[in-house]
Amino acid sequence: MGGVLIGFAIIAFVILVGWLLARARVVSQDDRLVLNKVAFFAASPALLFTVLASSDISVLFSGVLLVALVSFVAVAAIYALVARLLFTKDVGRIAIGASTSGYSNVNNIGLPVAVYVIGDAQFVGPMIMLQLLVLAPVLLGILDVVRAGKASFWGIVTQPLRNPILIASVLGAVVSATGLEIPDPVLAPLEILGGAAVPLMLLAFGISLGGDRPLSPGTGRKEVLLATALKSFAAPAIAFVLARYAFDLSDELVYACTIMGALPTAQNMYQYALRYETGQVVARDVVLLTTILSLPVMLLIAFVLRG
Predict the structure, then answer these.
(1) pLDDT score of 132
(2) Nearest 5°: CA angle at 3, between 291 and 257?
(3) Which of 18, 186, 192, 279 sits between 20 and 30 A of 153, alpha carbons compared?
(4) What start and end residues bound the annotated signal peptide (predicted)?
């Protein structure tokens, strides 16, 4: 459990630095947009390409990944239905909220959780690929289409193909599938650039906390609470039921699926919301609240399933 605490502490520290910079007026709220653009158009694509290029695509078809996929679809569908009926008809905002209900922080929290709580790091790579190759493209495709508005049919259809994150993900998957060797002079600068992605996202997130307080009136509190409840409590519960009863996985895999389902919402959601200018505060608050709740939820799961 010490590794999990260290992982949370690292993330909290970088977010705190961003918040302090905003509070000290070293940076403004507009500056977070610059950090986000650098992350979205340069650092994140480099990171995703290097991660996927060295991964095994075949692991996407394991039982654990099916549990993760069905769990995501379930909580996202619940959120979309409730939000559409009670909160908003904005498709982009609903898409962001639904994704925050299920898209997990596998990169930062997932690795120490897999190593120190589950005892096996093999679950991280497959979940990263599931989110990058399936879930993120669907979300970004929806946001691209919504943003395109009255653009031509061809413009709407090809809009996702001009997204740097999707392009990098597809190229990385192609490299992995074909076994192509990337020369070190090409890979090394991409690894350096990709290493800046997470810090940039966390700093931008911390700067945003220097603006409106979390759960402020008029910022979509009900949407935040719904997404937080689904991500923190419903997602791991659904993962447990699916793993135990629907897919009949072993006790070890049931435990792994449930723990991974309790991961907090990824900072990517705030990055995407900021980039597409929809649901920014909702995404920010859900990331914050689920990160706070995830540790006690994981401790409870470990106690119940491992004793």
Answers:
(1) 78
(2) 65
(3) 279
(4) none
Which residues are CB-neighbours of 182 under 8 A, at least 6 positions away? 53, 175
Residue recorded with tokens 């945003």: 208
Q: Would you call 263 exposed, middle or buried from its count of C-beta atoms within 10 A (0-12, 13-18, 19+)?
A: buried
Prediction pTM value: 0.77
Please give the C-alpha separations between residue 291 and each of 37, 111, 231, in angstroms, as whole numbers: 24, 15, 10
How do the domains of the chain map onto residue ranges? 2-306
Which are the contacts of 84, defined by CB distance < 8 A and separation ≥ 6? 94
- The CATH code belonging to domain 2-306 is 1.20.1530.20
Average pLDDT of the segment spanning 8-27: 87
The tokens of 125 are what? 């790579």
Give CA–CA dist 65/170, Å, rounded: 19
Cβ(258)–Cβ(236) below 8 Å: yes
